[in-house]
Design a protein that fits this description.
This protein is mostly helical and about 325 residues long. Helices cover about 70% and strands about 0% of the residues. The protein contains 15 helices and 2 strands. A two-stranded antiparallel sheet has the order 1-2. Helix 9 packs across helix 12, helix 11 runs antiparallel to helix 12 and helix 13 packs antiparallel against helix 15. The model has no long low-confidence stretch (mean pLDDT about 85).
């Protein structure tokens, strides 16, 4: 049986190999910081297996997270010279292959869907081929490997080191911002456990006029957007604001339609996603990959849309959710 752990080990191994490449890259002025950052991350994938089965303590993983924050926060990671073909060669290659270049990207979802729908029912000796409950993530991993093979065959590339170097270049371009969404995603559960939602709810109920539905809706919607701007993730802001205002005030006190209130509340959170650098995977990483001169350019361009959508969401919730 193929277990999901194998996929995580493969991801960790790729990070370790790229960390070794970074350590040997003398064109990177901060090569040891970069190698330490991604090497520790890769090692964490292997160590976490022991934490999950409780054979190893979890504290070292917390120390690793703090070290990663120090390395990234103090600018101890850098970028070397890219080991990629020149811009002219890439343009010529793109003109030659045309839309065929999308085949590797399309391979991933196709293989993932096949694994999640067909392969999940396959058994060998009465035992399932894929670990039950992990078919989708395993399909994603198998799809990524298949896409690598398709890409190498399509481009007639025989050296595995070439895609590894390209991946390392992309990893260095994205930098520490690549990990920001994963770290921020746990903030929602931490805030909820710490009782932040309850405290925000008490403050809101104390200052919110009774029966003022429009004011309550505006507070919930704008609160979702603001918390998302601070936390960088609407899924992290959702439990805090819903526990504070959405459920006790809008749904229980004012008899709001729960699916409508919660769905529109999430949309308000996504308005905040459009205008925050904390949502690194949406705003900073694409700017880094496209090598934009203004890394905050996407945020500036999305700001008017976010403001208009937030106003529309407040109006829709006030008119149709009660």
């Amino acid at each position: 049986m193929i277990k999901s752990e194998y996929f995580f080990w493969l991801v960790g191994a790729v990070f370790l190999v790229m960390a070794a490449q970074m350590a040997m890259d003398r064109t990177n002025p901060k090569r040891f910081g970069s190698a330490g950052f991604w090497g520790l991350l890769g090692a964490a994938f292997f160590y976490s297996t022991g934490v999950v089965d409780k054979s190893l303590p979890a504290e070292p993983l917390g120390v690793v997270v703090l070290i990663l924050i120090v390395l990234g926060g103090f600018g101890l990671t850098g970028k070397g010279e890219a080991h990629t073909p020149t811009r002219e060669k890439r343009a010529a290659s793109a003109a030659r292959f045309g839309n065929k270049l999308f085949l590797p990207a399309l391979t991933i979802p196709v293989v993932a869907m096949i694994c999640a729908t067909l392969v999940k029912n396959w058994k060998i000796g009465g035992e399932p081929v894929l670990e039950p409950g992990s078919e989708t993530i395993l399909g994603l991993g198998v799809g990524a490997i298949a896409a690598l093979g398709v890409g190498m065959v399509l481009l007639r590339e025989r050296k595995v080191s070439v895609p590894l170097h390209s991946g390392r270049n992309m990893l260095e371009s994205m930098g520490w911002a690549l990990l920001l969404p994963q770290l921020l995603s746990v903030l929602g559960s931490i805030f909820q456990t710490a009782g932040v939602g309850e405290q925000v709810g008490r403050i809101t109920e104390a200052v919110l006029p009774d029966g003022q539905k429009l004011v309550a809706v505006a507070v919930y919607c704008c609160g979702m957007a603001l918390f998302t701007i601070v936390m960088g993730n609407a899924f992290a802001a959702f439990p805090v604001m819903t526990a504070a205002i959405g459920w006790p005030v809008l749904i229980q006190q004012m008899n709001g339609n729960a699916p409508a209130v919660l769905a529109i509340g999430m949309l308000c959170g996504f308005c905040g996603t459009l205008v925050t650098p904390m949502a690194a995977n949406f705003n900073l990483v694409p700017a880094a990959l496209l090598e934009l001169k203004d890394q905050y350019g996407p945020i500036k361009a999305q700001l008017p849309t976010a403001a208009a959508l937030l106003v529309c969401n407040v109006a829709i919730m006030a008119l149709f959710a009660f």
